[in-house]
Amino acid sequence: MHVLQLAQELDLPDCWVAAGFVRSAVWDYLHQRSPSPLPDDIDVIWHDPGNATQEHDAMLESRLRACDATLGWSVKNQARMHERNADLPYLNASDAMRHWPETATAVGVRLGRQGSIEVAAPFGLHDLFDLIVRPTERFLAGKQALYADRIHCKNWQAAWPMLRIALPD
């Protein structure tokens, strides 16, 4: 909740805490184990085409570090990330998540105005809760080697042995 509160205080449009932060918490819970250490890069994503500079994201990371220097922050305006990923421009943060490597990683959470937790999951939550690691369409169609390398390097099954990894044919 602390992380979600700090992200909410940035008051950014279409802002979510996403990726490994969410995925690992769910997998830990489903494996009935203690929470994993927070990732070195807590992904805070947002979308605003009118303010899509690396410098602005760096300033936002600095603000978050000033609030809690014990956490590793990674703030990325998804309105510019399509360039790095060789994709067409993303329409919003959820659309950007559609271009991430795995369906179970393409999940974001945030605090709503009344303190409720809101979820963005462009592929739904089934793979996340069913412990399935599956490539998104983008990584199935054009980036298979990157997906396979990522699965190998992450070695998630060592920490979460009930995971089922889907590898492209």
Topology, number of strands:
7
Q: SSE order in H/E notation?
A: HEHEHEHHEEHEHHHE
Number of helical stretches of at least 4 residues: 9
Secondary structural class: alpha/beta
The amount of helix comes to 40-55%
Widest sheet, order of strands: 3-2-1-4-5
Distance between the termini: 39 Å
Estimated radius of gyration? 16 Å
> Mean pLDDT, nearest integer?
95
Beta-strand fraction estimate? 5-15%
In terms of per-residue confidence, which ranges show pLDDT below 50 for 5 or more consecutive residues?
Answer: none
Shape label: globular
* Largest sheet entry: 5 strands, mixed
Describe this structure in words.
With 169 residues, the protein is α/β, with parallel strands linked by helices. It has a five-stranded mixed sheet with strand order 3-2-1-4-5.
Topology of this protein?
Blueprint: H1 2-9, E1 16-18, H2 20-30, E2 42-46, H3 54-67, E3 73-77, H4 78-85, H5 93-97, E4 108-111, E5 117-120, H6 126-129, E6 132-133, H7 137-141, H8 144-154, H9 156-159, E7 164-165
Parallel strand pairs: 2-3, 6-7
Antiparallel strand pairs: 1-2, 1-4, 4-5
Question: Keywords for this structure?
Answer:
41% helix, two-stranded parallel sheet, 169 residues, globular, alpha/beta, single chain, five-stranded mixed beta sheet
